[in-house]
Amino acid sequence: MMAEFSTLTVEHLGPIRRITLNRPEQHNPLTPRCVREILRAIELAGADAAVRAVIIRSTGRSFSSGYGYVAEDVEEGDFAQHAGIEDDATAMIGLGSGWARVWDCPIPVIAQVHGNCLAGGTDLALHCDLVVAAEDARIGFPPVRSMGVPPTHMWLYNVGPQWTKRLLLTGDTVTGSEAQGIGLVVATAPADELDQAVLDLASRIALIGRDLLIANKRVINLGVELMGRSQLQKFSALNDVIGHRAPEARAFSERIGELGLREAVRERDRAFDTPDRLA
Asked: pTM of the entire structure?
């Protein structure tokens, strides 16, 4: 019997399992419940001998605009309730441990990115094995401008040190097409053709035997691990906790209290509104 989910839907497409985040009106926030449900759906797909590839996509205008909070999605112990330094550190390290379950899924996982893929949305996408994006998608981590460090930090392993610095020292975003040029995504398609493009790729992967897919993914992931992935992730989480207590972060929190999140973000980003030519 399949598990039931409230924040996402799951489809069985032959050897492909497609997981769709389904809170379009809120830009698919990664609430504690949503994260738990994604991880559970990935776990079920990875354990199903009939499944050879997984797709994670979203409805609405955004893949995900990042971490968010919906009251009914929070349970005792969730990071939304933590305030102290040690609680914050435990929560941020826990985020990395959670997304590592996507990274360590035995079979290939493809992120299908459209619209906004920001902040925590990139934590999810970059823990997938492959990212395919709409040409006009918007990808980045703007919270580095006022809040801290990407807590799971998979950027370095996808685009190398210079582009990681270029994006994380400014908080700038790139389009899907620009992301392909720097290696952040493996392929792009027009937004209205994205579903089919990703299904075609997943179907091509599914032509390979499951045991061979598992073996090849395991070797590649170990190579990344030998580069220090999990240790860098813990270090990033701890530096994110430090960032949460920077003067700029405290000031930004105050502005959120005064203006609301949307207006505080607009005020913060106004200085970055000049045209940015990345390529």
From this structure: 0.94
